[in-house]
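Researcher: I'm preparing a figure for a lab meeting and need a structural model of a single chain. I don't have an experimental structure, so a prediction will have to do for now. The sequence is pasted below. Please return the structure as tokens so I can convert it later.
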Amino acid sequence: MNPDQVLAEIELLAGARVVSKLNSGPVSDSYLIEHNAEQFVLRLDTEVAAAFGLDRKAEAEVLAIVSRHGLGPELKYADLRRGIQVTRYIEGRVWTETDLQDEGRITRLAELLRQLHALDSDGQPLNLNAKVDNYARIIGTAEGRELAEETQQLLARLNEQSVSQCLCHNDANCTNLIDGQTLKLIDWEYAAIGDPMFDLAVIAEHHQFDQQQTDTLLNAYFSEVHEEHMQRLHGYRSLYLHLLVLWLASVEKLGKPGAEQQVLLQQAWHRLHETGVD
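Model: Understood. Here is the structure written out token by token.
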């Protein structure tokens, strides 16, 4: 979709203009736009977005909740059928890997997640089994099916223990953190009701936390850390690594990997082969 043409069709944003392209990803492209001296982010789904089964309606509902509590951007406009979304631009700095070397910033992130996990929400549950099945179908190889089965076995073991469920972001890596007047999360397309430990595991595994970073994260999140917390974090880190490989392999199969995704896939495969299935 052409961003200028899309803006021209949105009556609510009459006269808006594209300032710059912010990001180009496998499933969507984002643009900074200006309207009546205010700035917004226009996100347009790519042609492969539908293959991943993203629930844009559920995402819009989550945005309504988190924006009220100052945890995410305000939704300005959405065309769910066409995959068009406009949110208010958040002034601030996007975090990098370096930020997660700082104990104070890890603590701030843990506090942000505690706020999120304390919200009252009746959102959709996180159906990871369905996502894994979908990734396996997209990849379409025996290796992909085998990895999907391993992932679902790991998920089944984690689900044996009943835990309190809450609204989770499920993709809280540093590129989705904006540090302005407060720390906020963007890109809520995977947000759903699930185990809050998965949010912590995404951070720890995506950024390959060492023991000191892991201890800082858990101590900041929990009033008291128990062995059970460490074990569940370890299990969810393994689950996230499996999911990451499946997602990246799906992106590669659909012909939409950027250079960054290709490198990440190679690194994730290497870590997976090193660690094996937990």
